Amino acid sequence: MSARRKIAVLHIGLLVLLFALQFVLPAYHHGNLARIMVLASYAVGYNILFGYTGLLSLGHALFFAAGMYGMALTVNHLGWTPAPALIAGLVAGLVVSAALGVLALRTAGVAFMIVTLMFAQAGYLTILYFGEWTRGDEGFVIQQAQRMLWGIDLSDPGNRYFAALTLFAVSLMVCLVLVRHPFGRTLVAIRENEERVRMLGYDTFAHKLGAVVISGTISAAAGAFYGLLFGYAGASFASVQYSIFPLLWVLLGGAGTVLGPFIGTLFMFYLIDLSSGVTTAYMLIAGVVLVLLTLFAPQGLVGELRRRVWRWLP
Amino acid sequence: MTLLSTRGLSKSFAGLQAVRNVDFDLTKGEVRALIGPNGAGKTTLVGMICGRISPSAGTVHFDGRDITALPAHRRIGLGMAYTFQITSVFAGLDVAENVALAARRRLSGDAVAPAVEAALMRVGLADRAEQEAGDLSYGHQRLLEIAMGLVQEPRLLILDEPTQGLAEAEIAAFKTLIRELAGATTILLIEHNMSVVMETADRVSVLNFGELLAEGTPDEIRADADVQAAYLGTG
């Protein structure tokens, strides 16, 4: 079987498996998996910038929140239906990421991390400042009646699962197509040696800006879906914690792998879920496991798999 | 006809004048060697030509156009190619992808693979296309750099010490390669290996303490007393 064929079988196989799981999973895990798929889409977006382009952002919560509030504010204050509201979320993410990209990409390395972190904090504070509309930390609920997409009730677990799967499938395919496309391969080359790419005649600034916008827009899509599917928007999603989460998921799953973000999100979600069932000091267990993984699988779960077994993994 | 010319090109780093007032002209189709002792400013000069370093003063014209203010990637887009003195391949990517990255700016789709293969064939790396570039020997990485330059089919190919670290047989192959390219491509060669300079260059420019000391055919340069004193030694 050619590498191309194997890649297709593996990724489509995962989507088919996720589709089938909804019929057998108990309600609790069914709900978890829907949440994981939305968060994994966020991680897929993050991975495009961090894993493939080699730019470590500490401000992706800004994009996640831009999508979430772009959707939720238009639903709540303008009475928009979910379809145009989701598009509003995407556009908000696109505009915010383009603006942040233009400014933050003037820096590199540690300065880039700090600048993205600061912009995200400014975004968080902005949400608190306009508490009259955003309800700040407390947030607001999106009512069941406001979550009807083309007559489909997105608060229903089955529909919600299917919507989450659709988002995840699209994110995964965008990532897969991107990394095989010349643009994506140039991003990988920028990660490896930016100066050389520049001296091959590529406009590396434009490429990196493109990566920020694609990454930010996928993250915003995840934010918009999260708010819509789980019926809530709040400022905590714009906090620094939500910038660190995708970094952790991607590191655990494998930076620069297509499946890594999903595996990392799944692993971390259930690690916390299971360890919190054992003890109230669940972060201790989670912490130890994370340390062990970083020691023995520094390239993440899928990264190690690629290094040891499946060299063809994208 | 002149392809490249610099006028009054200077660069100083914190008071140190690395390149001083250089007027330098390259004729279309020639192979020009740039020689000079270590620290003479050779890499700084070509850095200013291809846009890696911005000059303190002076202008660069390429094909009749003032490119002094153009960023490096735009200059490469006009048909310059630069291979690095310190090997700078993409170590984590395979050899073919390294060359493909250089090719894809000019070509797309199905045209890329044959061009990559042809460039690798020319430098003798065709059988290593699948290997990771970081696993190649130093000499092979130098050849890969040259292949990445060739595949761009540049109008001006700038090679910064291409034969450094190559074995004798590889140097001989390199000379043959340059002679094949001569006429079709204008080549600017920074080189320490005198046999390469003498056998491949049409003309030689000598840089010393950031200034152009002499310019002429290889034989004229060999006979020049100033050059001998500065660089070749009198023995």
For the sheet with most strands of chain A, the description reads: 2 strands, antiparallel
Hey, roughly how much beta strand do the residues of chain A contain?
Answer: under 5%
Which spans of chain A of ≥5 residues are poorly predicted at pLDDT below 50?
A: none
Assembly state:
heterodimer
Classify the beta-strand content of chain B into a percent band.
Answer: 25-35%
Question: Structural class of the helices, strands and pairings of chain A?
Answer: mainly alpha
Global outline of chain A: globular
Biggest β-sheet of chain B: count, sense, barrel? 6 strands, mixed
- Write the element-wise H/E pattern of chain A from the N-terminal end onward: HHHHHHEEEHHHEHHHH
What is the total domain count of chain A? 1
Describe this structure in words.
The complex is a heterodimer of chains A (314) and B (235). Chain A is mostly helical. Chain A has one domain (3-308): Orthogonal Bundle (ABC transporter involved in vitamin B12 uptake, BtuC), CATH 1.10.3470. Chain A is 75% helix and 3% strand. Chain A is built from 13 helices and 4 strands. Chain A has helices at 3-24, 27-52, 61-78, 82-104, 110-129, 131-134, 157-180, 182-198, 204-230, 241-253, 260-278, 282-296, 300-308; strands spanning 140-141, 148-149, 152-153, 232-233. In chain A, the strands form 2 sheets. In chain A, strands 1-4 form a two-stranded antiparallel ribbon. In chain A, helix 2 crosses helix 10 (241-253), helix 4 packs antiparallel against helix 9 (204-230) and helix 11 (260-278) runs antiparallel to helix 12 (282-296). A 6-stranded mixed β-sheet of chain B has the order 6-7-8-3-9-10, sandwiched between helices. Chain B has a 4-stranded antiparallel β-sheet with strand order 2-1-4-5, covered by helices on one side. In chain B, helix 3 (95-103) crosses helix 4 (112-123), helix 3 (95-103) packs parallel to helix 5 and helix 4 (112-123) crosses helix 5.
